[in-house]
Amino acid sequence: MSFSIRTAAGLVAATAASLACSPRQQTASDTPSVVMSASPSSSPSATPGSDWRPLFDGQSLAGWRGFKQETPPSGWTVQDGMLVRTGRGGDLMTVAQYGDFELELEWMVEPGGNSGIIYRISPDGDETYMSGLEMQVLDDARHADGKVPLTAAGSLYGLYAPPPGIAKPAGEWNTARIVARGNHIEHWLNGTKVVEAELWSPDFNARLAKSKFTQWPQYAKSPRGHIALQDHGDRVSYRNIRIREL
Hints:
Blueprint: H1 2-20, E1 53-54, E2 64-66, E3 76-79, E4 82-85, E5 92-94, E6 101-109, E7 114-121, E8 133-138, E9 174-181, E10 184-189, E11 192-198, H2 202-209, E12 226-229, E13 236-245
């Protein structure tokens, strides 16, 4: 018994010595694997495998047109990777239509500036806002609409107010996200959910009845439509515009 133990010990020692004297090339399997975990995010857009597509390539107006026209309005230009409203011409609208989607972009307005992101727009009607829902884009500090919560930056314009203090001032970039899934609508601004609404719920209907939108029968009726960046007469810049259909 003692002889077998000594013999086994000798074999182990000999094997170890042999390996030490016979170095080999290190392979990937020899390297410890490092698992990188993503930081927690409150953003639904962090879903793994989500199918995001750019709506703006940073170089051209491809994929965009005007409302009731086949080409982009002359007042919109591309500057240093930004989509900029520089002159009169009307709202800039996507060629494609979207139903359930998640839209992300960044916006920046000039002092006193006003614009909007209007979505689910029907091609009928005289203006984009007569059928589409709008997320307000605004310099809250200098524009009169900023003094009214229902028309402040991030609001579901005229219907649902955001909490105060979320929008960044003119000249700084704001990150916006819109989630539209069936009748469920969310507006996010700078990482905070600022609006949540259920279209045609008793609450929505009560708010709608007190708003100017009652004069337009097509308002919020379309489950699918175009997305537009509003020409409200002021300089506004957009960038990093992307969408995924839900």
